[in-house]
Amino acid sequence: MNKQKDSVNKIIEQNNQLREKLREENKKYYEQLLVYIRSAGLFYDDYEIENLLLQILQDIISAQEDGQSAEEFFGKSPQLAADELIHNLGKSSRKEILKLAGLVFGISSFFELLSALASPDKGINLLVLIIYGLLSFLFVEIVFFIIHKSIYTKIIRGKVASFLFTWLICSLMIGSFILIEIFIPPLLTVYLSNYLGIFIISILLIGSVILAFIRSKKDGRMWWPFLPFIWILGIIGIASRLPVTENWMSSSDGKITAAVLTGFGFILFWVLTYLCLREKRE
Fold first, then answer.
1. What pTM was computed for the model?
2. What is the dihedral sign for C-alpha 271, 275, 276, 281?
3. Please, what is the Cα angle at 132 between 199 and 259, to 5 degrees?
4. Which residue spans traverse the membrane (predicted)?
């Protein structure tokens, strides 16, 4: 499986290099096609998708060398042609599907666990962790669907309307998590002692750094933006449980400080994610 993953990464790298040979209008045409096919769904085989995209790119480059534009070669209705190609793609193995679902579930549950550990009186509601993981996977599917459909179809016209639509989707996502937190009964809530909570937080913080280092060899820096936000939540959790700081953290000043730091960590996460994606594109 690691060999196939390496092959996929090599194909993507080759694709990125060859794309620079395209003229501007052909590059725009192909990159729309690329996003449309890649965002078709979570469960298609990555190796087949990237092989298909590379083959299309090589054909377009050959056509360009013969004086044809990408539109003349591939057609004026790329969506119809792409849909037919996507329909013939193979699905990922059950193991890969479970691995992907587990990754999304694990990331969501991990952050909810850290958030719960940051509030000693709150406890860890295991039922909330499970529902958060399932809902996160659903939202990832929805985001992929919106991106996929918006490539060739204007779902919302106008910058203001697009901004409001994006704001509405984000608000619904955040609101769903808040409602779950409020209304799910504490049937499976676990309360930890302060020292056990500090121990678990410390393990999670150290483990996150080790995992980021390990994954960076395969995925580059895509996991690094998570670390500042994780450590901010972890430090808040430890400070809320230490005898010398727990009283201050439970005061109004402490809660405001924790909220500001959490907001700063969230903004920092998005900024670092944007920089990583821009670096990857370049």
1. 0.69
2. positive
3. 60
4. 97-118, 124-148, 160-184, 196-214, 226-244, 256-277
